Amino acid sequence: MKRLYLIGGTMGVCKTTVCEHLKRLLNNSVFLDGDWCWDSHPFQVTEETKNMVTDNICYLLNNFLHCSAYDNIIFCWVMHRQDIVDKLLKNLDTSQCDVKVISLTCDEKTLRERLQKDIEKGVRTADVIDRSIERLPLYRDLKSIKIDTTSKSIEAIAKEIIAS
User: Is-contact 139 12, C-beta < 8 A?
Assistant: First the structure.
């Protein structure tokens, strides 16, 4: 049976890094980062673009789910509200797979440190810190497996996801 991993978390909790590692640990796996489905300049969040990105994500994930080459489909995105997860699941053909919904979290100090490193590298802008910290408590209320990434290696986090 296929396994679909929906991995959410605020910016800076290591979603992408963990998912890249998870892809290497799991045989016959494929990874999609939701941000790749609307990487634009300028970045625009409107009802139209939100609907478009959801359509793009579901189209790609359904293709991965229907492809016999893949047993493990890994998807990450911020997914800070239950309605986002529910909308994705409603539009995915999960009849032949086991779905794992996971929320990655960390403490505020760790989140600030990780994001500051990205800002110094020029990968993120300074406004990301406040936006990310504001979202952090929202993951408590989601119907998901919670994994705290504070003080854990990428390897340990990936193995915890596999064991979940």
Answer: no
pTM of the model: 0.95
Q: Give the C-alpha separation, 74 to 107, whole Å.
A: 24
Distance between CA atoms of residues 123 and 138, nearest Å: 24
Q: In Å, how far are 4, 27, 54, 88, 112 from 82, measured between CA atoms? A: 17, 29, 14, 10, 25
Band (38; pLDDT cuts 50, 70, 90): confident
Q: Token digits for 2?
A: 């296929």
The pair phi, psi for residue 87, each rounded to 5°, is -65, -40
152 near 13, Cβ under 8 Å? no
Residue 40 has pLDDT above 90, yes or no: no
Distance in angstroms (rounded) separating the CA atoms of residues 86 and 148: 22
